[in-house]
């Protein structure tokens, strides 16, 4: 995949008071619209800003994408649904021209002592991180495995059977010029890629994300996040699938997306 010509410090939005003006790099693959991972990143940023307490982990973020968001200014309004000693539930709603184009709920849980005992979990191994990763490099996809089309860039040291799909993402582009991505915002943006990961077929991507949910047991470390496909089911133009999220040190959580059939996916040139 060709390297991007976008400067790594270029932000997705120009922040002007209470409104956010998307720049051209915020465009996704479904036309002149703000990419789902950018919408999710902004909503994730909003709920995290609201809960300014490091004792609480952002354990779950559910993002709904009810209407396409044009490359035009948006506003985000945040409120707390419930606050408590162990749990805080926050809602963020994104408006554009008086219409809701995205909304999210974030569940924050207070950290505590880890109970003893052994619990089953699936054994999933991510392909190795490519050794030629450039700091602050674009595009978003550092390396993909098993996707079966031209987006694929396999590693000779990682054989695959053409079924399971994996990707390593480099998430360094900030939302705003004066504020780097937080680990949670980075994970919120990565989780949107679940729909592409699980729904990519031998003929490309023919499903668009309607919503996605991110769950975390800890915050990711570093700029790279990996996704390993875990499940997929589709019928009658509706698809659902899940992935396991990793950073360079191991598993951090999971994601699930629900999608509907759509044609016309064409990633914008970088």
UniProtKB/TrEMBL annotation:
<dbReference type="InterPro" id="IPR049450">
    <property type="entry name" value="ACOT8-like_C"/>
</dbReference>
<dbReference type="Pfam" id="PF20789">
    <property type="entry name" value="4HBT_3C"/>
</dbReference>
<feature type="domain" description="Acyl-CoA thioesterase-like C-terminal">
    <location>
        <begin position="146"/>
        <end position="253"/>
    </location>
</feature>
<feature type="domain" description="Acyl-CoA thioesterase-like N-terminal HotDog">
    <location>
        <begin position="33"/>
        <end position="108"/>
    </location>
</feature>
<dbReference type="Pfam" id="PF13622">
    <property type="entry name" value="4HBT_3"/>
</dbReference>
<dbReference type="InterPro" id="IPR049449">
    <property type="entry name" value="TesB_ACOT8-like_N"/>
</dbReference>
<dbReference type="InterPro" id="IPR029069">
    <property type="entry name" value="HotDog_dom_sf"/>
</dbReference>
<dbReference type="InterPro" id="IPR042171">
    <property type="entry name" value="Acyl-CoA_hotdog"/>
</dbReference>
<protein>
    <recommendedName>
        <fullName>Thioesterase</fullName>
    </recommendedName>
</protein>
